[in-house]
Amino acid sequence: MDVAASEFCREGRYDLDFKSPPDPKRLITGEQLGQLYQSFIKNYPVVSIEDPFDQDDWEGWQRFLGQVDIQVVGDDLTVTNPRRIQRAAELRACNCLLLKVNQIGSVTESIQACKLAQSHGWGVMVSHRSGETEDTFIADLVVGLCTGQV
């Protein structure tokens, strides 16, 4: 489930009806959002959630990972950046990296980011970014890095 919560975070709270005119009464906390996800996990076969909180809501990520036993994927949280990956690992904010080669800049840097995530026991999911070609390179990268997830 790719939530992309940074897209509907407003001043540290979350607007689940973000396409409607703003209404402060409608905003929920990160803790409430985490409880909503937990109800989904309990009632449906959810095994992976990507970007469940805003990219700077480190506390929300930490709290949630401590409460669930599923894969929590950091895309906007880590942006394939080694410093953010290291911080997320130290804070126990997620347990899987979404690796995007053209986000970090080179294949070499991507391999380093992958190894860093794996050194912390994380899963790694390789992905493309919007607007890329239909080239199958990422499938080869998944095999080469033994990530097992595209």
Assigned CATH superfamily: Enolase-like C-terminal domain
Highest CATH level, the class? Alpha Beta
Shape: globular
Strand content: 5-15%
Computed CA radius of gyration, to the nearest angstrom: 16 Å
Provide the residue-averaged pLDDT. 94
Number of domain units: 1
Order of helices and strands: EEHEHEHEHHEH
Explain what the structure shows.
The strands form two sheets. The chain has a four-stranded parallel sheet. Helix content is 40%, strand content 14%. It has one domain: TIM Barrel. Strand 1 (9-10) and strand 2 (13-14) form a beta hairpin. The protein has helices spanning 30-43, 58-67, 82-91, 101-104, 107-119, 137-145, and strands at residues 9-10, 13-14, 48-50, 71-74, 96-100, 123-127. It is of the alpha/beta class.
Tell me briefly what this model is.
The protein is built from six helices and six strands.
Quickly list its features:
metal-binding; Beta-enolase; glycolysis; two-stranded antiparallel ribbon; four-stranded parallel sheet; Enolase-like_C_sf; 14% strand; 150 residues; 6 strands; magnesium ion binding; TIM Barrel; alpha/beta; single chain
Q: Helices, strands, pairings?
A:
Elements: E1 9-10, E2 13-14, H1 30-43, E3 48-50, H2 58-67, E4 71-74, H3 82-91, E5 96-100, H4 101-104, H5 107-119, E6 123-127, H6 137-145
Parallel strand pairs: 3-4, 4-5, 5-6
Antiparallel strand pairs: 1-2
